[in-house]
Write a sequence for this structure.
């Protein structure tokens, strides 16, 4: 179920907040919208009990293929590839820097204080 709110002519600008697919189902009749002078409060009511880890629905791409005939390193590489492809530019830069530092030997040893 999509979630979409539009604000028209707020100090001469239009705004839109959209979530194309929510994590789980909501009950639209019970949801609330409160407009205050400097903010808007949107309360979504879940159709079923339980915790949502995220507002957005995400495919479970992070599950590793645990087939015994497959190479475990290949599964980890697939996981890293999915994480890299799905993240924003800042995360891509962070992953690339960590990989480069590790390959060049510049990576700090997180356990150096404990040895």
């Amino acid at each position: 179920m999509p979630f979409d709110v539009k604000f028209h002519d707020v100090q001469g600008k239009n705004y839109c907040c959209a979530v194309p697919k929510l994590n789980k189902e909501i009950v639209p009749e019970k949801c609330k919208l409160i407009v205050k002078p400097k903010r808007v409060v949107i309360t979504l009511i879940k159709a079923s009990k339980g915790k949502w880890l995220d507002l957005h629905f995400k495919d479970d791409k992070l599950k590793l293929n645990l087939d015994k005939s497959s190479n475990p390193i290949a599964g980890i590489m697939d996981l890293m590839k999915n994480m890299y492809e799905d993240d924003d530019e800042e995360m891509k830069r962070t992953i690339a820097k960590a990989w480069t530092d590790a390959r060049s030997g510049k990576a700090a040893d997180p356990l150096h204080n404990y040895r």
User: Anything to note?
Assistant: The two ends are 52 Å apart (CA to CA). The chain has two helices and four strands. The CA atoms of residues 23 and 58 lie 7 Å apart. The helical segments are 72-86, 89-104.
